[in-house]
Design brief:
- By secondary structure, the protein is of the alpha/beta class.
- The chain has eleven helices and 13 strands.
- The chain has a seven-stranded parallel sheet with strand order 3-2-1-4-5-6-11, sandwiched between helices. The chain has a two-stranded parallel sheet with strand order 7-10. The protein has a two-stranded parallel sheet with strand order 8-13.
- Helix 3 runs parallel beside helix 4, helix 5 packs across helix 7 and helix 5 crosses helix 11.
- It starts with a strand and ends with a helix.
């Protein structure tokens, strides 16, 4: 199958590309024009289309000859500076219209648990608007609302390890750290998305998926501390205070490990039914404690410093 992938240079995209080519699919990635070299997995053969996702003509050109689309792109990684209306809502509307016009036969969209137009949180509002654009776009579609995703080079566990490493003996939890999450290993998500390309029975549905267990934020922090060999005292802090700290980090740090969107995410339970992945996708997801080897034997304080210096250099280039 000929597949166009948006967001291919992102965390999930880099995990999906090798699985697509291993499954025999011909892959084209959509990149925004940029002087920077894209971060792509080595040894993965892909075609490249250049266009901003809001450029209807450019997106149509990239879609010519494609049978399916994996839409992974989103703007939340830019933190408070993100224009979510443009990066998520308008971009997805443009993509859905272009997919219909070019005869795409399947569109798979990666959304978030909790996506809702009535949500108090901008990311979840934007994802819900994008979902509606997919549903009304007249292209056979599958919407996957995923729980928080983790893996090597993520902005979740590795950011947490770096933050713990530079914390002066104490780490602050929002509230009491009891909000339940359902961490999903990126390799399992990538497998599910690739399998969804060939499963006719999934079309027209929205699936909410997560890992095989519910864990509190405090339990996740403890798992990361154990894997990264970092021991810190855990203390509670009111979420508004932590949000202010994250906003300050965005202002002062070239590369802030966390953004205020994290506080939005941790404001409520982000879980799905445990049986969805095994029942709908035939996949038994990995437990978190068995999937954190990438955190071991790393100098996370040094990695935090390298990220700051690298981003600072790129900002002044």
């Amino acid at each position: 199958m000929r597949v166009l992938v948006t967001g291919a240079t992102g965390f999930v995209g880099r995990a999906v590309l090798p699985k697509l080519t291993q499954a025999g699919h011909q892959v084209r990635i959509l990149l925004r024009p940029s002087p920077a070299s894209p971060r792509l997995p080595k040894g993965v053969p892909v075609e490249v289309g250049l266009s901003d996702l809001t450029d209807a003509q450019g997106v149509r050109a990239a879609l010519l000859g494609m049978e399916a689309v994996l839409h992974l792109a989103g703007g939340e990684g830019q933190g408070s500076r993100a224009d979510l209306t443009r990066s998520d809502s308008e971009a997805t509307r443009t993509l859905a219209a272009a997919a219909r016009e070019t005869g795409v036969r399947r569109l798979i969209y990666l959304s978030h648990l909790g996506a809702d137009r009535a949500s108090a949180y901008p990311v979840l509002q934007a994802k819900a608007v994008a979902e509606d654009a997919i549903r009304h776009g007249e292209v056979p579609h599958i919407i996957v609302r995923a729980a928080v995703i983790y893996g090597s080079e993520d902005r979740f566990t590795t950011s947490l390890a770096m933050t713990l490493a530079v914390s002066p003996g104490i780490y602050f939890l929002p509230g009491n750290g009891s909000v339940p999450l359902q961490p999903l290993w990126v390799g399992d998500l990538a497998t599910a998305l690739v399998w969804a390309l060939d499963e006719e029975g999934l079309i027209g549905r929205t699936y909410e998926i997560g890992g095989p267990e519910y864990l509190s934020w405090k339990e996740i922090v403890e798992l990361v501390m154990e894997a990264a060999r970092l021991r810190r005292v855990l203390a509670e802090v009111r979420p508004p205070v932590l949000r202010a700290a994250f906003r300050l980090g965005e202002m002062l740090l070239p590369w802030p490990p966390f953004t205020p969107f994290w506080i939005d995410y941790l404001a409520a339970s982000r879980t799905a039914a445990l049986e969805t992945l095994p029942r709908a996708f035939g996949l038994q997801p990995s437990r978190m404690e068995r999937s954190l080897d990438y955190l071991r034997r790393r100098n996370w304080a040094g990695e935090w410093l390298r990220r700051q210096l690298r981003r600072s250099e790129s900002n002044h280039a």
